[in-house]
Design brief:
With about 750 residues, this protein is α/β, with parallel strands linked by helices. The protein contains 19 helices and 34 strands.
Amino acid sequence: MKNFSYLFIFFIVISCRQQTDKLDMLIPQPLSVEKGKGCFTFCPATAVFVDSSFADLEEYFIKAIETLTPLSSSPAINYVYILRNKEKDSLGEEGYFLSINKTKITLRANDRKGAFYGMQTLLQLISAEPVLVVPCGIIVDKPRYAWRGFMLDVARQFYPEEVILKLIDALAFYKINVLHLHLSDDQGWRIEIEGYPELTRVGAIANKAFGDKSSGFYSKNTMRKIIQYASFRNITIVPEIDMPGHSRAAITAYPWLSCFGGPGRFDKTNPRDNLPFYDPVCPGNSKTYAFYQTVLGEIAALFPGEYIHVGGDEVSGTCWKSCSRCQALMKKEKLKDVNALQSYFAQKIQKIIESYGKKAIGWDELYERGIPASFSVMAWREEQWGIEAANAGHKVVFSPCQYYYFNYSQVADEERRYAVASPMYRVYTHRLAMGKISSAKHQNVMGMEACFWGGHDSTGTALFEAVFPRLIALAEKAWSRETEDYNAFLHRLGHHYPLLDQMNIPYYVPHPEGLYDDVCLTKEYEVNLTLPPLPGAEIHYTLNGSEPDRLSALYTTPFKVPVGTVIRARTVLSNGRMSIPVTGTSRKVSLLPAVKVDRLAAGVRTAIYKGKITTLRDMPLMTKIADTIMSGLFCPYDSLKKNFGLSFTGFLSIPADGVYSFYLNSCDGSNLFLHGDTIVSNDYCHPRLTIVRRVALAKGMHPFRVDYFYSSIFEKHFVVEVAGPGLPRTEIPAGMLFH
């Protein structure tokens, strides 16, 4: 028995030495961490004392500990104290103070919320260890933003209660405190409304005529359980009832809500990638407001949070132009156009919401249409709308789709085109442009929120794999001080994959990077694959085009293959999870010869166009407003807000023979041509998207053209970069551009 005790003590000492860096692995990163010497070990003789004002947390915390080690009533040898501060300090209601020494852990907080978050930090420190050893130190922590949110679209894809509860546990573990539920849309109405039972009897059923695929709704009793479960974990559920657009499900249930007695047809005049926008509700009909008076009254009574989200995005007002009731209302209220009519509707809805003691929040189109400063704004199209709204006095939550829409692909490989991509490095390294907001208005920024739209799997597996680990990156941005050290974050994140495994949370497994459809000048091609820090990760590959698995060849070091070989690779984890397979090949090419040109001058010719455009094929139909010479490839005038095109032509000076990479990063569309041939195609309306292609070029001058247009709801962005022999990736410098 004595030998066993010595062995146990030896194991604890070794484990303690290994734990000293665990304080550096917390996510979100605390405000301050001071490391100590030694460690605290949880064991059956650990006693837990919780302040009576936090009594409801005692059972939760002890149960969490006992999933890892039993706690008994035997004489205690070490202690955990969870206390309320007698006098409130500067940590606010969500902050906490955590002190760990060899025999005692003390967690202090001003409020139950802070105590709960301190528990999450402590659980992170112990959860992944077979021996529950916590390094000594002092942590002082509080959040950066009050609104740290995640939006789930349950209208397009209904998720059962158990999926929502599992999601709430994961959100709470990473200190996310808002779950925004998108409860209604064209594809479904998901919340019981007693005053209008057809909303769920009809509106919650998938309408096959429109291609809907998901049915279901939450009864009020089920939603109360979800709300209570979330509230215990410091999560406020914000309900969204989308209006006046995205209302096909409601109109299908009650056709009189629309201008012409039905859901109407897709409005092809709406310039959003041909997305189907159906007729909205009729703001000229008094019965519409009576409907929302009842609906919002029941929503306000059910959800205890202070906000009700009313949508307001992507509204097509075409049918309002031919509706006699809408036109009569516009004449009576002296509303100049259908945008003013939507503003009128939103303000009427706001008054209804405020009559129930709640506050209204909606998407940024409402700010564009015109709403009072008391109406809060969620900026999704681009940050600029949130910046303008904050400066105008609105409370703002930032959800820029280019960074925080997690239904977008998270594949970070710029060599392949995906419809839209928001890889984790973009989530983490994005910085809100607080410098554009008056310092006196910084208080109007409530925080940030990630969104997941659509979905196709009611089990939640596809949802979790799309959301994690990107949501962990956003959680840190919303809680911690601003940082752009992505590599340090990846190092810390590597310690959190086992925690996700313990919570049975599916997650995206990063695929190997380094495989492209490449070109080379030799007969052999070097395969050089990399992975971010990922415990237990291996790369397995095949050279015959077949799909690799854990039995395929193990990658250990770069190797060469004959040109034309099809290489497929994937990440395989020790727990059996695998990444998507990625494919690469190469082809031998000759250098594209340079051309001889006399009497060149610096700069590029630039034609500027104005007019409606959704693809670069339409540029010849636009009106040319200027011809000029520019020093670089960039947007020349701040006055070009949207609906414009640029065409740059000239010669590109290549400094040496070799293979060059051209990166075209734009929102909206852009194309790059060399010698009249398309090299990079990044056309159509989309958020920021980088496409890269490689081409072998001889030293000298090469004729080129770059076209770019901007027309959509997203942010204006255009960058052309190059990399090649002796030339690191950079924006094409002025010294390479001639005409």
